[in-house]
Amino acid sequence: MTRKILIIKEEEDICTYFIEDGDIVEIHLSSQQESREPQAVLGNIYIGKVQNIVANIGAAFIDIGGISCYYDVSQAPHAFFTHKVGKKPLCIGDELLVQVSREAVKTKAPTVSSNISLTGRYAVLTSGNTRIGVSAKLPRALRETYKERLQEWKNEEYGIIVRTNAKEMPLETVLQELSQLKCRFLELKKTAVSRTCFSCLYTAATPYLTDLKNVYAEGLSEIIVEDSGLYEEILEYSRREQPEFVEKLRLYEDPLLPLGKLYGTETVLRLALGEKVWLKHGGYLIIQPTEALTVIDVNSGKCVSKKNRPGAFLQMNLEAAYEIARQIRLRNLSGIIVVDFINLERPEEMQELLREFRRTLSRDPIQTTLIDVTGLQLVEITRKKIRKPLHECWNGREL
Q1: pLDDT tens for residues 187-209?
Q2: What is the mean pLDDT of residues 292-315?
Q3: How sure is the predictor about 305, in pLDDT bands with cuts at 50, 70 and 90?
Q4: Average pLDDT rounded to a whole number, residues 373-392
């Protein structure tokens, strides 16, 4: 698979497009506008103060400096407290180290966690789980090698997860990065005890720089940036954090043909913000995000002549399943997703559809799980919430 990244500055927004085998598969939007309101930036680490505890839902609300954030109280026994006011695992007034783990979504507050995660290019160090983990997308033999070699890192303070990007890297390179993450983690805890409440101890990189850290390096051929100032910023970041990207970084300069026009990004973005998605053979999808979940309806549409052919509805559904998986990733849909496929009469056809749908969803870099199919043949999916979906980021602005 060949990969490219386009980074385009449009007024006060930075648009990042991931391209795989010639198709745009992800769109991320970062705003550079300064907000008057305080923001809970994904990945930032603060000393927060417990405002309120809601025992019946197992939650607390923690202030990180003018922002009230949701917190799962089950994490409290393993939290790092800088000031403790009572003997219970969590008390109002407690001050503790927390990291923003999920952005605010619509009316829901941002989420913070006391399970601190420091993400590198090839590994993650986390205080939330002390096990040694390896990406399931790495070959089995390589996974076993990492698990064996990393046993000496086993401890009760933090855990390690080896990322997919470690596939082509020497073990020594991964271990060197782990040593850097360990030093950063220990320094963070040391600094926290002498800092005041609401201090920000760690500022995450801007989203478009974080995107570079999270992209799969395998097959990545180019990172094309249109704005010169943005190019210099990314070049400096790459030299410091990801030197292997420097030779792939390219400044695009052609005033007669903007980068967006060259790759048709405006068309892709407009379609990704629309409700209807046409399929190749005449069917179409209706995608409707709501407050609680996203509903996707599969329609046969213009595909009339083949409806009476045996297996015709299965083929329509298989085509729809591939496109649904693509749209989920493209639009960054998350949470609960319910798909209403065209009804299938034969149970073996439904099983084939579910099998192919699971396989297609497994390609998503973000954890996506096909849960089950209901008695009404509604397929239930969950996708991990990390960042706002595309339609919320765009927020009604004109193209």
Answers
A1: 999 999 999 999 999 988 888 88
A2: 78
A3: very low
A4: 89
What whole-number distance in Å separates Cα of residue 294 and Cα of residue 340? Answer: 11
Instruction: Give SS3 for 300.
Output: coil
How far apart are the C-alpha atoms of 333 and 331, rounded to whole Å?
A: 5
In the prediction, which pLDDT does 107 show?
Answer: 76
- CA 371 from centre of chain: 19
DSSP 315: H
What secondary structure letter does DSSP report for 281?
Answer: T
Type of residue numbered 275: E
Query: What are the C-alpha distances in Å from 63 to residues 41, 70, 91, 202?
Result: 14, 9, 13, 16
Q: Which two tokens stand for residue 149?
A: 């070699």
Measure the CA–CA gap between 41 and 112, rounded to whole angstroms: 10
pLDDT at 68: 94
Output the DSSP codes for 74-141.
Answer: GGGGG--EEE--SSSSS-TT-EEEEEEEE--BTTBPPEEESS-EEE-SSEEEESS--SEEE-TTS-HH
In this predicted structure, what is the pLDDT of residue 121? 86
Burial of 160 (0-12, 13-18, 19+ CB in 10 A): buried
The number of helices, as runs of H, and strands, as runs of E, in the chain is 9, 22
All residues at 6 or more sequence positions from 89 whose CB lies less than 8 Å from its CB, including other chains: 73, 76, 77
Whole-angstrom Cα distance, residue 387 to residue 105?
8
Q: How confident is the model at residue 289 (pLDDT cuts 50, 70, 90)?
A: very high
Tell me which residue has tokens 């046993």: 151
Instruction: Note the Cα 115 to chain centre separation in Å.
Output: 17
Residue 30 pLDDT level (bands cut at 50, 70, 90): confident
Give the pLDDT confidence score for residue 395 in this predicted structure. 64
Rounded-to-integer distance, Cα 275 and Cα 247, Å: 39
